[in-house]
Amino acid sequence: MNFLLETLQLILMSIYYNIEAFVRLFIPFKKKNVTGEIVLITGAGSGIGRLMAEKFASLGVSLVLWDVNQEGMKETARLVKEKGATRVHYYMCDCSDKAKVYRVADQVKREVGDVSILINNAGIVTGRNFMDAPDSLIEKTIEVNTMAHFWTYKAFLPAMTANNHGHLVSVASTAGMIGVNGLADYCASKFAAIGFAESVALELLATGKDGVKTTIVCPHFMNTGMFDGCNSKWPLLVPVLDPDYVATKIIEAILTDQVYLLLPKSMYILMGMKKSDLLPRHARRIVTPFQHSEVVTVHAQTAQYSHTHW
């Protein structure tokens, strides 16, 4: 009898959450008030990190910016102050270094307070075929794109769970949901980041910490310069995205406690097709919306290697 009840519950809850997710595509939920929250953004010295900081500037939050690019952070701080932010703090931190993350995190807690919205945004890409990528760059990709999330969660999640209040945001990629030619290490790191974020989200629910919200962001490639040489097979259906649009959508997802954000919206359909057992193996390659040219200019536009060319 328990089996039948549990099966029925699973079916009903699946239907409910799928309907809820479908409705969210067209009718956004009420936005929450984040005034007074402490928002930490990694990779805030440039790119999408800077844009998110600018969009938070008018929402009454305290902004904490992390990057290894001191000048980039100063410029971001200047821009967000121009847009109305009154409480802005920035710290140099290599998020791939566990000891540095813990040290700077303690400094933030002392000088600013407990972070209540953590946005893991920093990421790097080698842009080389797997056998051509140096071991050191593969290791660094995993350290920045995946392991850094472990250390920032370890540093800031305890206060969130103690208060049963907070928000964890993982800026991943659709390349963390579908393999891309020439980006094996990047895809692996983003797959891992998504799996990690999903697992922690389930742990929070299982332990009754439903006040700590989670959002996993999976955008298609953006024209930030990080993926020069990569383009879309179908630019009308799956365009290379404008960073400002992506930043706007991420902020909206945070304010409405959206669990998953795929961009553009057509990716929801493509991911469903890709994961469907109805598609034969060779047909799944057709669903991959990415093209990767032989010559790629890669910009490490991140908290770790801002505007460094490989």
TrEMBL record:
SUPFAM superfamilies (alphabetical): NAD(P)-binding Rossmann-fold domains (SSF51735)
Domain of life according to the entry: Eukaryota
GO cellular component, one term: lipid droplet
Protein keywords: NAD, Oxidoreductase
One GO MF term attached to the UniProt entry: oxidoreductase activity, acting on the CH-OH group of donors, NAD or NADP as acceptor
One Pfam family cited in the UniProt record for this chain: adh_short
Family indicated by similarity: Belongs to the short-chain dehydrogenases/reductases (SDR) family.
PANTHER family: EPIDERMAL RETINAL DEHYDROGENASE 2-RELATED, PKSB
UniProt name for this protein: Short chain dehydrogenase/reductase family 16C, member 5a
Species, as recorded: Oncorhynchus mykiss (Rainbow trout)
